[in-house]
């Protein structure tokens, strides 16, 4: 089922073009990742999708009743503000303790509900932001650089959790990331953005595209092959590859 269709969308900031003539579709249950250099328009694209920015031209069609959960790149909380995780999750809309506990459980943040927000580690903070997005029961979960500030084990754990959430909730996931090798292993489709869509498709197709390699270097393709080899997984999704022979990578 198609959740989102973006057609020929352009967005400017003042007189500066941020993204131009972007086409993008997202279907139920798939993981799509946007990669691109700094200033390539990735966050602008996300903000246009959630409705925080109005496109100059083109269309953003969301399926009727689609719910979006959004995890921003960063969120600053005044360190002098004594706010607990539960209270934070009840802003701006009051939530039941049961809903809060369920969302924290899904986000792998059990037992944090009474902790002060300012006492959380980087990984715990990201999981609380994820829980906040999950309170919306989203059809589409949007994550802007969700592993910013996390170490490698923390990043790997969070990407593993995102994959689990796709399986348990059925939500589609759209994320922006700079961690190319992880993105390539975790995504069904990759969109390479640099003011416009340079290339898109399955991770294997994008990793071998000249436009992608011009932006990120040819070594990234080797990183993809290595990561696929070490972390092979099987999906039963129309949009995904099923690897019946985990150690036979000749076809890739």
Short description:
The chain is of the alpha/beta class.
Q: How many strands appear in the DSSP assignment?
A: 9
| Tally of helical segments | 9
* Alpha carbon gap, first and last residue: 28 Å
Q: How do the strands of the widest beta sheet line up side by side?
A: 5-6-7-3-8-9
**Which CATH architecture of the largest domain is right?**
3-Layer(aba) Sandwich
Corresponding CATH superfamily of the largest domain: P-loop containing nucleotide triphosphate hydrolases
Q: Find the CATH topology of the largest domain.
A: Rossmann fold
Average pLDDT, all residues: 84
N-to-C SSE series? EEEHEEHHHEHEHEEHHH
* Proportion of residues in helical segments: 25-40%
Shape: globular
CATH class of the largest domain reads Alpha Beta
Runs in which pLDDT lies below 50 for 5 or more consecutive residues are: 222-252
Oligomeric nature of the chains: single chain
Structural class: alpha/beta
Key features of this structure:
252 residues, six-stranded mixed sheet, three-stranded antiparallel sheet, 34% helix, globular, disordered C terminus
What does this protein structure show overall?
- The chain has helices spanning 42-50, 85-89, 97-106, 122-134, 152-169, 180-186, 203-207, 210-216, 219-230; strands spanning 2-13, 16-27, 31-35, 57-62, 68-71, 140-144, 172-176, 189-193, 197-201.
- The chain is α/β, with parallel strands linked by helices.
- It folds into two domains: 1-67 and 139-240, Rossmann fold, CATH 3.40.50.300; 75-137, no CATH class.
- It has a six-stranded mixed β-sheet, sandwiched between helices. The chain has a three-stranded antiparallel β-sheet with strand order 2-1-4, covered by helices on one side.
- β6, α5 and β7 (172-176) form a beta-alpha-beta unit.
- The longest helix is centred in the middle third of the chain and has 18 residues, at 152-169.
- The protein is globular and about 50 Å long.
- The relative contact order is 0.16.
- Mean pLDDT is 84; it is low at 222-252.
